[in-house]
Design brief:
single chain; 71 residues; mainly alpha; 45% helix; elongated
Length: 71
């Protein structure tokens, strides 16, 4: 919706009406979750993560439970 406010402000500044055509321009479109986009976004974190934890074949993500040690 920020683009609509920007267009309205620009139109008001130039003395004209709203530069968009009708109510269709203010309709909010829903977006589907695209995991490929997230993967690209997170790509920059991979290097630091690998340096910090090592490669994924060198550790397990299984949670450690010490419930046996308490008995």
């Amino acid at each position: 919706m920020a683009h609509v406010k920007r267009a309205a402000a620009q139109a008001a500044k130039s003395g004209g009406g709203l530069a968009t055509s009708g109510p269709a321009s203010t309709t909010i479109k829903s977006k589907m979750l695209n995991l490929s986009t997230y993967k690209l976004h997170a790509l920059g974190d991979y290097v630091n993560t690998i340096r910090h934890f090592g490669t994924t074949d060198s550790y397990s993500t299984q949670t450690v439970s010490d419930s046996c040690a308490r008995h």
